[in-house]
Write a structure and sequence with these properties.
There is one protein chain. This protein is 46% helix and 19% strand. The chain contains twelve helices and nine strands. The longest helix is centred in the C-terminal third of the chain and has 22 residues. The two termini are 17 Å apart.
């Protein structure tokens, strides 16, 4: 019986699924968001539905397919296990659930040793060492982490605005005036915004900081400190190994020029995507003996 490999990349904005056989790609489909953090049940239903669509289109039976899913929010063991059980119930030959950061790491280096830093709404760094072990740094979320991320830049901008309002009675800098137009001009407007704002709302403010470079001192200060936080993530993830460095995410191109020269010199273009990494995991699982007859 022929074996197939289904890789899934699930994130906060879209989900991709690719079916491969021994010769390579057969079909790739796309659907909406599937973050286990934002909407657990919706994400599970979306991933399960997309998996069924792929199999139906290619007329492949689930028991022929090894599935690997890299999905946002899989760091929560309970959420990851709930997704795994749902997919196992569909009859796949094997099911693996990992974070989208791990599949991004594997894809970025095509399975070879590398340091990967993802900078977008949030931030996380990972290392696949020469010993084959994977280590993660950061990725704790906006409340206590996400250093160097778009959300962190947004929080810094809002703090700067509030300080100008408190000390000057108005938004003085052009940058804070732009932020004020988004979050409100006084306490009656700003406090409700703060109550409902999450990572995406803060990250949506980040482009304003870059748009005021290089003239605005406030923008230079915020972006400089943000780049220093990314440098610290890279340094921690690198350890004693001088591995190639891949920087991914929506802010990668914007922040890279502000990083330490040593880190800029180590950068390489990613060799693959998170979806490539998920397919790689599925293929690796197919080569391993399984003691679980269900999945």
């Amino acid at each position: 019986m022929s074996a197939y490999f289904l890789g899934i990349d699930g994130g906060g904005t879209k989900t991709l699924a690719r079916l491969e056989d021994s010769q390579g790609e057969r079909l790739t489909l796309k659907s909406g968001a599937s973050s286990l953090t934002q909407d657990l049940d919706g994400a599970i239903n979306n991933i399960a539905g997309l998996s069924r669509q792929v199999l139906a289109r290619e007329r492949v039976r689930p028991n022929q397919v090894h599935l690997a899913c890299g999905v946002a929010g899989a760091g929560n063991p309970a959420s990851a296990e709930k997704l795994r059980q749902r997919l196992c119930s569909l009859g796949f030959a094997s099911v693996q659930i990992s974070s989208d950061a791990q599949t991004s790491l594997l894809g970025a280096g095509a399975g070879t040793p590398i340091v990967m830093v993802a900078i977008g709404t949030g931030s996380v760094a990972m290392r696949l060492g020469r010993d084959g072990k994977i280590h993660q740094y950061g990725g704790w979320g906006l409340a206590v982490g996400d250093e160097g991320s778009g959300a962190a830049i947004g929080k810094s901008l809002v703090r700067a605005l509030l300080w100008e309002l408190d000390t000057r009675g108005k938004a003085v800098s052009a940058l804070c005036q732009q932020v004020m137009a988004e979050v409100g001009k006084d306490r009656s407007q700003i406090l409700p915004w703060l109550q409902r704002a999450g990572s995406r709302e803060y990250a949506a403010l980040a482009p304003a900081a870059f748009s005021h470079l290089p003239e605005c001192p406030l923008a230079r200060d915020i972006i400089g400190k943000t780049a220093a936080e990314v440098d610290r993530l890279i340094q921690a993830a690198s350890g004693d190994e001088k591995l190639p460095l891949a920087i991914l995410g929506g802010l990668a191109d914007k922040l890279s020029p502000h990083l330490h020269p040593d880190h800029q010199n180590r950068q390489i273009p990613p060799l693959g995507t998170a979806l490539d990494g998920a397919c790689m995991l599925a293929r690796q699982k197919a080569l391993q003996p399984s003691i679980d007859p269900l999945c």
